[in-house]
Design goal:
Layout lengths: L1 E10 L4 E9 L7 H15 L14 E9 L11 H9 L3 E9 L1
Parallel strand pairs: 3-4
Antiparallel strand pairs: 1-2, 1-3
Helix pairs in contact: 1-2
C-alpha cells in the first residue's frame, strides 16, 4: 500500500491550519515539482490571495508524507526551478517524511 500526502500548513494568527491537502495512492510517475506548485496555488486560492508572495504572512510549510507498506521503493525528490521559485516566493519551508516498511 502506498499513500502520498501533500499539504500546505500555516499559521492564521490563532492556530496552525491546513490550507491545502491532496492524497494520492501512487508514487510512480508523480511530478513532485508540479505537485508542490499546485499545492501552493491551492493554498493561495483557499485563502483568497492574489499572489503566492502574500502566503508568507501565514508562515507556510509544504509537507510531503510518503507512506509505503510492503512496497519496495527508493524515495527520491527532484525539484524544478519553477517549484523552487514558488517555494521562495511564498517564503515556504518544505518537509519530507518518508515512512517505508517492507
Amino acid at each position: 500500500m502506498i499513500r502520498l500526502t501533500i499539504q500546505v500548513v500555516g499559521d492564521d494568527g490563532i492556530e496552525e491550519k491546513v490550507f491545502f491537502k491532496r492524497v494520492l495512492d501512487t508514487y510512480d510517475d508523480v511530478d513532485f515539482s508540479a505537485l508542490i506548485v499546485d499545492a501552493l496555488h491551492g493554498a493561495r486560492a483557499a485563502l483568497g490571495l492574489a499572489s503566492l508572495s502574500l502566503l508568507k504572512a501565514f508562515s507556510p510549510q509544504v509537507c510531503l508524507l510518503l507512506y509505503a507498506d510492503g512496497e519496495r521503493l527508493r524515495p527520491v525528490l527532484n525539484f524544478s526551478t519553477e517549484a523552487i521559485l514558488a517555494l521562495a516566493e511564498a517564503e515556504s519551508s518544505f518537509d519530507f517524511d518518508p515512512y517505508i516498511y517492507e
